[in-house]
Amino acid sequence: MAVEMKREIQGVVVAIAGNKTATVLVERRVMHPRYHKFVKRFKKYLVHDEKNELKVGDTISAVECRPLSARKKFRLQSVLKTGVE
Prior knowledge:
By secondary structure, the protein is mainly β. It has a single domain, classed as CATH 2.40.50.140. It is built from no helices and five strands. The chain has a five-stranded mixed β-barrel with strand order 1-2-3-5-4. The N and C termini lie far apart (45 Å).
């Protein structure tokens, strides 16, 4: 039986999107194909927060899981750093 590798993302909580859900902004750096400079690319993910412990500004780590709703496919793994608020 093969063990699946789950995707792991790290990002900053930008909004609390209802009960047990947080919106996380993930930044990745990619090299521009022509200019060979690193540019930032951003994407937002919905993360399941079972205990409602997240606040805006927290830096978190989330892991991929089964689909919990139409857009929510990650669950909270750990809070790496708490926000300022």
